[in-house]
Amino acid sequence: MTKSVVVVEDDRGLREQLVAILRSAPDIKCVGAFSNAEDALAKIPAQNPDVVLMDIGLPGMSGIECVAQLKKLNSAPQIIMVTVYEDSDRIFRALKAGANGYLVKSSPPDKLLDAVRDVDTGGAPMSSHIACKVVEHFHVQESRHHEKHSLSQREQQVLTLLASGFIYKEIGDQLGISMETVRSHVKNICQKMHVRNRVEAVARHQAKTI
Amino acid sequence: MNDSMINWMAAKPSAVLTLAGLLALAPVPVRAAPEINPTLIQDVEVDNRILSWQPDRELSLGTFPRNVVFHIGPPAGSSQKFMRLRTKLEGFDQKWQEGGGTMFVTIRFYTGSGDLVAEKLFEVHGESPGWNGTLETSTFTHRRETFTAPLGASRASVCFSSAGGPSTVGLYIVDNLILSRLSASNAPPEILLRSPVLQGSSKISSPNQAPPGWERNGIRPSMAKILEIGQEPKTKVLAVIDDDPLSHAEWQNTRESAATVAPNDSLLVEWNEMYSIGVSGSRGAFYGSLPAGTYKFRVAEVSVLGQPTGLEATLALKVPLPYWQTPWFWGLVAALTMAASVSSVRYIAWHKMRRAMMHLEQQRALERERLRIAQDIHDDLGARVTEISLLSGMAQNMAGFPEQARAEFSRISLKSRDLVTALYETVWAVNPENDNLEAIGNYLRQRINNQCTQAQLRCRLHVSPLPHNIEMSSRTRHNISMAAREAMHNVIKHARASQVTVHISFADMFLTVSIQDDGCGFDISADPTGHGLINMKRRLEDIGGICLIESSPNTGTTVQFRLLVRLADEDSSRVNPPILRQPANGVPSRQYN
Q1: Fold entry, domain A128-209
Q2: Residues B270 and B178 sit within 8 Å (Cβ to Cβ)
Q3: If residue B169 lies in a helix (H) or strand (E), which one and from where to where?
Q4: What is the fold, at CATH topology level, of the domain defined by A3-121?
Q5: Does residue B379 or residue B19 have the better pLDDT?
Q6: A110–B461 CB contact, under 8 Å
Q7: What b/e readout covers B37-69, taking b as 16+ CB neighbours within 10 angstroms?
């Protein structure tokens, strides 16, 4: 199954490289490339891509804000944040905004393509320091949210192990589950973050209007 | 004194003076309240300057008056006359001042031919201690004087007189006067002369009579009287009542009754006296320097016997404190001093604050600059290097490229990725947003985890919560991260380990980072300088921390960094961003211990 991808990247050289890498894969089709969030928001609904590679730092509207906007679409694309540096704070905020994964731009082309292909099943692996922030996030807000948006016990285990430096394979071994399952847990964790973030935003909005 | 005068005195009829008679002689107007009569005071002169004054106003004499004169009495040319004026400067004088009127007892020595050769004067001023203003109850004071008869003296006579000074007025009673000669042996003195005993003397029936051997003299001899004093039975005494400022009177013993003396005779004269002596007319009351304070200058007219007539003038006076002795001055000085100290304290505080603000501003500017540098590196350099990494990554996968070229591209790709990581390190270090303990924890976790992933080492992270609000300077962060990288490098290069366990904790203000591997270990004593150990030690020492290394062959190695985190980090590191520092490698031999 061919995946359609849109690239949003303000640096021309990088944008062209990313597009070139995507084009090099027969099962991936690059349907668009934008240099800013505003253009991307205008065009993406029509193009309806499966995946968006979104630069985190964009001029004007930030990549994070753009993610939040795209996620409001009816058929929202999967979004992978691309970043020059593994800046935990911004990645964390992007995940909360609805990003499905993240990737360092200088990753080898294979890794990049794999991330696009696997985005449905969990995307790129979450590294320890991001996991740590996620643990903190759920820990701090646990009491304030619906049960259904809380992490399952298994998800918590996965997250804790991730934060302690375990890689997916090790987590699988430790918990007696497959790596695929670990990835899907991570994916769900990301989704819950996003949902919680939205619920929170709604609550905030309501509090304001009241 | 001649006969005609005696006749004139004798011709003046008068009864023996009693107190009532005396009062009639010097009528005393009795008034309920002292009348303020400003004409009693003419001028106030301070240090040769006449001050203008008003009777009902306090007069300031100025600070430090050195010479104060009150001119009292009737003004020049006035027909006003006052019997006797006494003054008192309340606040200064203990008692009334009579102004220098003088009467005296004198012993006059004559030659055989009757020429005066010498006179021995015993003066009196003011009022005698026993004088209380009345003839009835005042008491005598005894006086006793010894002296030597002068050369050429052959006779001595006694006299008491009101001729002591200009304008002298008042009363002088001398009684029981005895002049005697002291003998060389212890024999009793030989009485030479004595005042008349008037008691029971039938010879004195008229006050104008003179007792035997005594006579009146002076310009107005009638002022020499015979008085009756004391309670009943009254005592008759010789007195001078001088109520005429321009004249005087005296009692003296006649030449015939004079005593016979010889030069160098040791003589003793004793008598009882009472007196009240003052001055009439205008005069000055003189005072030297007056200390600061308030005074009241009083001038009162009294009768010839010293009884107040009720005429009185007062003048309130003030000698102000010099300004530097006044309370308000010191109050002002205190207030000014306080104001000055308060404002100087405030100024210092303001100055300090301003300096702190400037310092802060400088720091902020520096941080902005650091942020800008970080941003530039991130945006531009980061993107370029990432591009290289992507390009070479693509080339590495080009099926058409020769194997060798693809291997080279692979290396370029790897190297540029390393470069991105290195750039990230720098950007992270200079970004002021990361100047806290939490950031260093996150960063170490991320870096070590990545290094482990790349080296395919198991990684176990135990990171206790690190506070975000504890500052950690860029230099400190940089040194710790570089030391951690060095430690990880050693593990990957030399340890042949399969797992790295990292503990990061913060307790009791100590940040502890320990990196432990399960590798082959090494003998520290055998290789004290290798393994970049010196570098790690130096980096920690640089920021005031310590680096502990435990290792022995086959037990793995533990590297531990310990650092006391100082609050309000004030080291100068912020001024020297670590980006400008060259990472020092291969430091020459420092003894490792």
Answers
A1: Arc Repressor Mutant, subunit A (1.10.10)
A2: yes
A3: strand B168-181
A4: Rossmann fold (3.40.50)
A5: B379
A6: no
A7: bebbbbebbbeeeeeebeeeeebebeeebeebb
Distance (Å, whole) CA B399 – CA B271: 158
Q: What percent of chain B has pLDDT over 70?
A: 87
DSSP secondary structure string, B44-97? EEETTEEEP--TTS-EE--SS---EEEEESSPTT-----SEEEEEEETT-SS-B
Strand order in B41-46's β-sheet?
Answer: B49-51, B41-46, B68-72, B283-287
Cβ separation A21–B394 shorter than 8 A: yes
Domain boundaries, chain B: 1-321, 326-434, 435-593
Bridge partners for B516 per DSSP: B501, B558
Mean pLDDT of B158-169: 88
Residue A42 — pLDDT band, cuts 50, 70, 90? Answer: very high
Residue identified by tokens 């609904």 is A45
Residue A11 has its nearest CB partner, among B383, B389, B448, at B383
Q: For B234, phi and psi rounded to 5 degrees?
A: -70, 155
CB contact under 8 A, A11 and B417: no
In angstroms, rounded to a whole number, what is the distance separating the alpha carbons of residues B348 and B353? 8
Measured on CA atoms in the order A171, A173, A179, A184, is the torsion positive or negative?
A: negative
Cβ contact B382–A20 (<8 Å): no
- The residue that leads in pLDDT, B585 or A110, is A110
Q: Which residue of A has its CA nearest to B375?
A: A57
Q: Is the pLDDT of residue B586 over 70?
A: no
Distance CA A174, CA A181 (A): 13
Q: What does DSSP say about strands B249-253 and A3-8: parallel, antiparallel, or unpaired?
A: unpaired
Enter the tokens of residue A47: 């193009």
Q: By CA distance, what is B442's nearest residue in A?
A: A129
Using CA atoms, how far apart are residues B279 and B165, in angstroms rounded to an integer? 9
pLDDT tens readout for residues A121-167 = 776 678 788 888 888 777 766 555 555 667 888 988 998 998 888 88
With an 8 Å Cβ cutoff, the interface of chain A facing chain B consists of 11, 13-14, 17-18, 20-21, 24, 57, 84-86, 88, 104-110, 127-129, 132-133, 163-167, 170
- Position B105 scores a pLDDT of 93
Residues 6+ apart with CB under 8 A from A180: A121, A122
Beta-sheet pairing, B59-60 with B308-319? parallel
- Among B337, B309, B317, which residue's Cα sits nearest to residue B23? B309
The neighbour count for residue A87, using CB atoms within 10 Å, is 22
Q: Look up the pTM and report it.
A: 0.54
| Residue of B441, B452, B490 whose CA lies nearest to A166 | B452
Asked if B449's CB is within 8 angstroms of A127's CB, the reply is: yes
Which two tokens mark B473? 């300077």
Please report, for chain A, the start and end positions of each structural domain, with discontinuous segments joined by +: 3-121, 128-209
Does residue B79 have a pLDDT over 60? Answer: yes
d(C-alpha B498, C-alpha B492), whole Å: 9
The verdict on B422 touching A (C-beta cutoff 8 Å) is: no
**Best of A53, A55, A106, A173 to disrupt the B interface by mutation (most B CBs within 10 Å)?**
A106
Q: Provide CB contacts within 8 A for B341, sequence distance 6+.
A: none
- Which residue among A18, A106, A128 sits closest to B420, beta carbon to beta carbon? A106
pLDDT recorded at residue A146: 54
Q: Is the four-CA dihedral A10, A11, A16, A19 of positive or negative sign?
A: negative
- ipTM computed for the complex: 0.84
CATH architecture of B435-593: 2-Layer Sandwich (3.30)
Closest Cβ–Cβ partner in A11, A108, A165 for B393: A108
